[in-house]
Amino acid sequence: MIGRGVNRVDGPAKVTGRATYAYEYQQPNILYGVIITATIARGQIQTIDVSEAKQAPGVRAVLTHENVPGQGAADESLPWAYWRAHPTISSADIRHYGDAVGLVVATTLEQAQAASLLVRIQYQPATGHFDLRARTAEAYAPAALPAGFPPDTAVGDFETGFDSAPYRVDQHYVLPWYFAQPMEPNACMVVPRGEDLFVYVGTQIVDAARASIAATIKIDPERIHVISPFVGGGFGSKLRVHAETILAVLAAQHLNQAVKVTLTRRQIVEVVGARPTSIQRLRLGAGQDGRLIALAHEAITHTNPKEEFADPIAVSTRSLYAAPHRLTRHRLVQLDVLDGEDVRAPGEASGLLGLECTMDELAYEIGVDPIELRIRNDPHATLSTMCRFQNGFWSSACAKARRASGGAVVRTGRPASGTGGGLSATGWRRRPACNRSWTLLCGCESSPMAAPPCYRI
Amino acid sequence: MRSFSYERVTDPRTACAAVAAHPDSKFISGGTNLIDLMRLEIERPTHLVDISRLPLTAIEELPQGQLRIGASARNSDVAANPLVRKRYPVLTEALLAGASGQLRNKASVGGNLLQRTRCHYFYDTAAGCNKRQPGAGCAALSGANRNHAILGASDACIATHPSDMAVALAALGATISILSPETTTREVSIGEFYRLPGTTPDTETNLAARELITAVTAPPPPTGGQRYRKVRDRTSYEFALVSVAVILTIEGDNTITEARVAFGGVAHMPWRSTEAETALTGRPAIPATYQAAADIAIEGAVGRGDNDFKIQLARNTLRRTLADVAAITDRRTS
After folding, report:
1. How far apart, in whole angstroms, are the C-alpha atoms of residue B59 and residue B70?
2. Residue A106 sits at the chain B interface (C-beta within 8 Å)
3. I want to staple A87 with a disulfide (CB 3.0 to 4.6 A). Which of A40, A71, A100, A217 is the partner?
4. Can you give the residue ranges of every domain in chain B?
5. Read out DSSP for A159-177?
6. How far apart are CA A142 and CA B179, in angstroms?
7. Contact A376, A289 (CB under 8 A)
């Protein structure tokens, strides 16, 4: 199949509007839930008055931390957060602005929306920390990065190597938040049938959704049936389920009736985690011949105190360029802001931007073609990581890129054009193929990432 | 969304009377902004008067050569109109730079003029906003104010007007026809129609509650080139950080004899710069002239932190747009 254009089996259904996404499923007597989110950044709910909301037309239930059933705690020993319990509105604590604090369930969506604005909440705000730059002195090294990578690596003696290099670039790159905004906002419909719950949800990992729901509401995973023919766009935001799913499950159980809940566009940036802001320092030192002598990539990002998240920013750097003296370092700062989560190409999208821009700056310093600079730094010669390139692959890829860009990259009069290139590398751990195929009951043909997925390494 | 009653009217006078008869009522046309605001309960009308079917959709040339655009004309129809495209390309460019195809198919000319700011804090009912709730303070002053005003703002409000169309209309010197129940139709210029925020940012225009916009009239355009340039974070479906509408008339000896300049994204209203127009008129069409006009246009601009960059961006955008328009303008030989 490599090199051939292959049509997606579900393409026609998607482009003709016949694909059914999670929130589009219908059920008789369905109820609609609307999530209420916190309007302070840190503190506690002092009082939550739902009396007016409960009297509003069509309202069937208002769930808050005061009446929600007990939920399981996240099991930190599970290597991936997606499989862990995701307790929601389980306490009066507000961890970040936009934290879910309640769910209003009504006969129509409009009734639920109207009633959600009648819930009166008194907060006791607490002091928090929100500014990454102001807190860099508090940065700490995480025990490990996702997939067990070490936070720091060192080869040779970076400082000495860098100081001795005839050409040096020392640059900071600051990247803002990066949010996934999938085509279908995170949404879920739950239909209780007997002891079973049928969960219609767009998820990137069906098995993780089931495990997370079961662990949260503390029931046998066999009682949970996840129906997810279409992810509806994920970009990482649907690797795990969030408040929409847990609250739909809790409400459907509580009322023993079908309930659907969707995040609004705005709630996606309040309830779903995102790639945190990062401050990256890149130091590249090279000789007259354009070969790297020293390379350092240091990253500071933030994490919510409750669940540590470390974007593996400099991991790709470890295997991208050869240099006798190398250093990578990841540091975290605890901030009372939205949770960090994997967003499309975690680590690579953020880290390679910093590294590759700095490589372009180095090419400019030396006065060498930026693609030529990459060819001269073929990692094959010195790197012996798990991601070993085939000999010659690197140079031929660079040469191909140069041909595709119309020969040598030539600087034009405008500083913004013609001065740069960019390489990307991502590592994938190969696992035995999972020879299972599923015929989905609803008749849709699709294959959401099955468990276990091919983990990014 | 709060419950509301609804009626549909078929002639403009009845529309005014219908709104006058109900307290807390509002006109609805395309609804592309109002319905969003009602869902968030930022607008809470108890009665809606649907004016989308009023016979105000004509786009026609008047005997004196002006162009009259009915208030109910859809944005997409105005943009595609052959007369508009031929004689007022700056208006077509501005319209097509705004919103999305679907929204332009719904949005009316009158509604476009009256759309509310997209300031995040105006939409965030948990934040202080003097425009939404007079006296509540302005969270944007010390908040994320990258998109906010640099000209004509006040300590009560630094929101910007979001329309692209209105910026082109300001450069064209268009007037707005307003029907009120008590009087006959009155005409006001774009500059007279909008208000700066001052201490009452909740009052955005000089339109009274019962009045209805019936048309927009653009005088015959100056001869020469026209252009609308919009600078924004992404190239579609996004509001302007800075936009500029420019019209230039240039004589055979390269002297600018007439200039129109209006900015969007920088103020509480479309910001016509007569100062820049004066600085251009009678001067040669050369970069030094554009630079001088750009400097004078932005004189007195105040950044609020995140939006400091807009001051230089506005200068650059005007300078570049003037050069672009000069390049496409045939020199007039008299």
Report:
1. 6
2. no
3. A71
4. 225-327
5. HHHHHH-SEEEEEEEEE--
6. 67
7. yes
pLDDT at A379: 74
ipTM exceeding 0.95, yes/no:
no
Q: Do B1 and A114 touch (CB under 8 A)?
A: yes
Write out the E strands in chain B.
5-8, 25-28, 47-50, 59-61, 67-70, 175-179, 186-189, 212-218, 225-231, 242-250, 256-264, 271-272
d(C-alpha B194, C-alpha B190), whole Å: 6
Min Cα distance B92 → chain A (Å) is 30
- The predicted-structure confidence for B173-230, as pLDDT tens digits, reads as follows 999 999 987 778 999 999 999 999 999 999 999 999 889 999 999 999 999 999 999 9
User: Which pLDDT score, from 0 to 100, does residue A434 have?
Assistant: 52
Cα pseudo-dihedral A302, A237, A175, A417, rounded to 10: 170
A386 close to A347: Cβ distance less than 8 angstroms: no
Residue A453 above 70 pLDDT?
A: no
Give dist(CA A273, CA A339) in Å, integer. Answer: 5
User: pLDDT for A202-250, tens place per residue?
Assistant: 999 999 999 999 999 999 999 999 999 999 999 999 999 999 999 999 9
| Band of residue A441 on the pLDDT scale cut at 50, 70, 90 | very low
Residue of B nearest to A41 (CA): B126
B225-327, CATH topology level: Enolase-like; domain 1 (3.30.390)
**B39 touching chain A per CB within 8 A:** yes
For chain B, helix, strand, coil in percent to 5 are: 30, 20, 50
Query: What is the per-residue pLDDT for A391?
Result: 67
- Given an 8 Å threshold on Cβ–Cβ distance, is B1 in contact with A110? yes
**Which class is domain A20-126+186-271?**
alpha beta
Is B133 within 8 Å of B122 (Cβ atoms)?
no
How are the residues of chain A apportioned to helix, strand and coil, as percentages rounded to the nearest 5? 25, 25, 50
- Would you state the pLDDT for residue A140? 98
**Sequence ranges of the domains in chain A:** 20-126+186-271
User: How open is the CA angle B315-B319-B325, to the nearest 5 degrees?
Assistant: 145
CA distance A288 to chain B (A): 38
Q: Does B1 touch chain A (CB under 8 A)?
A: yes
Residue B233 in contact with partner chain A when CB distance is under 8 A = no
- What is the pTM assigned to this prediction? 0.84
Q: How many CB pairs under 8 A join A and B?
A: 8
Banded pLDDT at A430 (limits 50, 70, 90): low
| B126 at A interface, C-beta within 8 A | yes
Helix (H) or strand (E) holding A250: helix A243-255
